[in-house]
Structures are given as C-alpha cells and as structure tokens.
TrEMBL record:
This is Aryl-alcohol dehydrogenase-like predicted oxidoreductase. One of its GO terms (molecular function) is oxidoreductase activity. The lineage of its organism: Bacteria, Pseudomonadati, Pseudomonadota, Alphaproteobacteria, Hyphomicrobiales. Keywords: Oxidoreductase. The keyword Oxidoreductase applies. It comes from Rhizobium loti. It comes from the Bacteria. The keyword Ribonucleoprotein does not apply. GO terms for cellular component: cytosol. Residues 16-319 form the NADP-dependent oxidoreductase domain.
Amino acid sequence: MDYRRLGASGLKVPALSFGAGTFGGSGPLFGAWGNSDASEARRLIDICLEAGVNLFDTADVYSNGASEEVLGEAIKGRRDAVLISTKTSLPMGDGPADYGSSRARLIRSVDDALRRLGTDYIDLLQLHAFDAGTPIEEVLSTLDQLVRSGKLRYAGVSNFSGWQVMKSLAEADKHGYPRYVAHQVYYSLVGRDYEWELMPLGLDQGVGALVWSPLGWGRLTGKIRRGQPLPKKSRLHDTASFGPPVEDEHLYQVMDALDAVAQETGKTVPQIAINWLLQRPTVSSVIIGARNEEQLRQNLGAVGWTLTPEQIRTLDAASEVTAPYPYFPYRRQEGFARLNPPAV
C-alpha cells in the first residue's frame, strides 16, 4: 500500500481508505449501502489491515451513530493500529442544538463520537457541511480547543465550496488556529467538478482530498451499460435521488472508455476508475466501501499497478465536460490558460 501525506500535514494516510457507511446500516439510504454488524465489520477490517489500509472513515449521521458504534466495537484492542476519521455538523435530530458547528454542538458531538467509537481521541474530524449560521472564528477556536485538549489530532471539512474553505484558512492563519488539512469531496470519472476550483485550491493551500463515492454513486461498477435496464439489485433504485446526478449519455460514454481500458489491462471497471483517481493531483486517499469480503478484495485490487499515460488520456477525453464560467476560458483559450493553467 502506498502512503501519502494528508495535504500539507505530517499525517501519512493510505492511498485507499475504508468507508464505514455500510456498518450498522439502517434507513432508506444507509440500509441500501449495507448493514454489517460488529463481527462482519471486524472481518472486513482484518482484510483492510492485511492490505495496509488503516484509515477508516465514518460520520455521526451514518445510521444515526450506529456506524461509529460498530466501528468502535470492531477495532477494540487495536486502536493504535488504525486511524479514525469521522464527521459532524449535519442534523442528528430536530432540536436547535442538534445540527451545525457551533461551539456547544461541536463539543457535544465530539464527546458523543468518542463514546460511540470507544476511544479517547479522533485522528481526523471533518465538518460534514458548511454552517453559514455560525461565525467561522467560533468554529475554528472550538476546533483549536479540541485539538489542544487531545480529543482531536487534525481537522478537515467536507462538501465545502472554494470560498468557504479559503475564508476558513485565512481565519486560521490570522489567529493561529489549526488549518484544515483535508477536504472530503465527491470526485469520479462521471463527476469532475472538483477539478475546477477545489483542486487548484488544494494544491495552493496544502489541502488533501479524501475522495468519497469514487464509483459515481454506484454507477461505475461495470453493471450499467447502454441499451440495458438498470440491474434489479442496484441500490440506485432506492438511492439515486440522494447522490450527484449524471446524464445517461455521459455515463455510457465513460463506460465505453472504461471497457476499452479494461480489455487492455485485464482489470475490472471499478479498479480502473479508482486507479484513475489515484493519479490525480491533491488526492491523498480514495475512500472505498464494501458490503462484503468479495467487494472489498476487488476494490483493493485498484492499487499495485498504474494506468499508462495513453489510457489516462482515453479516460480523460471520455469524461471531460465543459466547465462553468469563470473556469471554461482557462481550459479553452490559450491566453487564459497561460496566465492560470488548469491543475490537470
């Protein structure tokens, strides 16, 4: 397993990490992902650790805390062998103190997560969404307090826009608070919006990407093809509305390219899609998920080899879409690109 620095921090993370959204799954979204109990989770974690995957990502909203609880049970006795990443800020109830990133909410959320995980520290806490109702200085000063108390090692964000990340980093620099070192983002061959603003920001500011849904919300499993109905067992029947949209023709175009590269390499479509991500700038780790051992071992096969430059160009061309303003001139006009060349 390849290990990479998480952004500009000193923390080394594996190129592949494991998403624990399938642990304790319940409800229309997380129940469709999977529902591994502690015994099943322990086996999946065993396989991960054997392969060098030691970063496990979860969130308080995953099955209303059950994912953290199952993960905590599954790592008992080997806390020092793993890195735990969790997230907070999204609603955990209907009360006014049940959502957001206020000082009171963050302190309580971290304490609740520590209890569910059965640990006394979290390696990486990420704000799951930007809280426009709480001053950024309040958020950062609270994270600083939590780091100084030993409850957190590092802080990051997820699903932020560029200006939200940049304003937060400026405030952190101004007051000497911990900088965000990670941004957990959606990025895939059928969703390359990350490249337009957040990737250049990550390069400039030392913010590493932790990629969620690298298979385009389950669309790049190799089971969806042009002219064929959606497989009966696909979780997209129940969860498509929760995830990022993809135009059918764009998906089929990407799938054609993936199939061509699969024939050349002998690798599976998911392995190719993940390997492509691992070649992109700022990507510190790609978060893989699995409902069972077979899926996990297949995803682990995405590392240990590299796509050729020609294969990468084939996938790039098939997956490229026109960037929105003000980004498209820098990709389509030489004069603009000379002043500010795209990150990829």
